[in-house]
């Protein structure tokens, strides 16, 4: 029988700060934001969740730089060790079912609706992969490297296609001049967005991998995060402390700046949107998760979720459950409580990693045993898988039962 446990929500772990891994994503902690009201509460009106760590594996020889859900029972991970791996969740185990090695350290990973796997890289490129899981020998096959040879060839021929990327350096507009830090997809998966430390983001067609737009000087410093809403609004978070909203206006070919959100006082490391796009969560080195509401590109900061002792490095959301990962080596599980206005309950603090939490992914959990299903039904709970990747090279799988409203 699987044993599920819970701990008080205010139980946290003090730790020393980890060293920074990059010039843009900062692990250093800054003062929290005093100007925003705290939305977090330890006094939840719902029962505390039941959860346990179902599996821990050494996923890579370097830290885990990206996690993504491939399907309900398959996870994708990547690392600066240049490897990308597919894992099958089987009861309380993760088994590696397919792997591939790229030619550059990997920064992030994303899966489209048709299950194309996209990875972003230190060499400024994006790679597209296809998993063949139907045959006995599962494989990850490289489909394309972005920008494609065709894109690069035609941009080289035209002098107008060159842009200034450094004081004494120019390159073609289809090329990122620094590491690609984050990826996002449009709601229909027809457009891929890539954000880079070169302060730009680019837009690519997924049908032919063609670069169709480059937004130069999108920020004054490295772009660390990018997300896209269902209605086409693009949100970018940067080491310059700002979050910007972009949209391609009707009749226009290019994205335009819609608004700038300036609540954070330190580098923005992570962004995530609620399913309907009406709420944006941003995590930064100020140890706070800022909650923005409004949708439609005009977001207003309504408050902050506090509790982490060090920088927020990653975020994930599933329905009304929000998870935040930090350099303090912990993951906090938050749940919005609509009956209490903007209030969020901190349901749990997940501990076990030996280093900073670099990535999170969350999906619904299919019960594997009669005991688990009975417990879920008895508690009227939603069941979630939370996957965490750390600087300690570990991937952990957490099973969480969160009480449903009503």
Automatic annotation (TrEMBL):
Stretches forming WD repeats: 57-97, 173-214, 216-246, 261-293, 305-335
InterPro entries cross-referenced by the UniProt entry: JINGUBANG-like, WD40/YVTN_repeat-like_dom_sf, WD40_PAC1, WD40_repeat_dom_sf, WD40_rpt
The organism's place on the tree of life at top rank: Eukaryota
Keywords tagged on the record: Repeat, WD repeat
One Pfam family per UniProt: WD40
PANTHER family named in the record: F-BOX AND WD40 DOMAIN PROTEIN, F3I6.5 PROTEIN
Designated name of the protein: Transducin/WD40 repeat-like superfamily protein
